[in-house]
Design a protein that fits this description.
Layout lengths: L1 H23 L4 E2 L10 E2 L1 H22 L7 H23 L3
Antiparallel strand pairs: 1-2
Helix pairs in contact: 1-2, 1-3
Length: 98
């Protein structure tokens, strides 16, 4: 169960990055509650808040699970991060293509 938690933590950590970066740059970006859902754009503030929420949950999961000395926990965290990164690249690459 700890590995699953770390996998999700890696996914949340990865998902926090584009939302924080776009929000901090003052740009609009996709969020789950945008209209149409998952396709529309949300404001920079909404993206910063969504990125911070993802980051806080990821840090909480890492703190509660990884600090419990889970063997190879960083591998699960990395797999979650890389998996989410590849998924985001494919989805947003198609969605933002000219």
């Amino acid at each position: 169960m700890a590995y699953l938690g770390l996998l999700f933590a890696g996914m949340l950590l990865c998902n926090a990055l584009p939302h924080l970066l776009k929000g901090l740059q003052g740009e609009r970006f996709h969020t789950p509650w945008a209209q149409p859902r998952g396709v529309g754009m949300s404001s920079a503030l909404e993206n910063v808040l969504w990125g911070c929420a993802n980051l806080l949950v990821a840090v909480f999961l890492i703190d509660r699970i990884f600090l419990g000395n889970v063997p190879h926990g960083m591998v699960a965290l990395a797999i979650g991060f890389i998996g989410m990164a590849v998924t985001c690249a494919l989805i947003f690459g198609r969605r933002n293509a000219p």
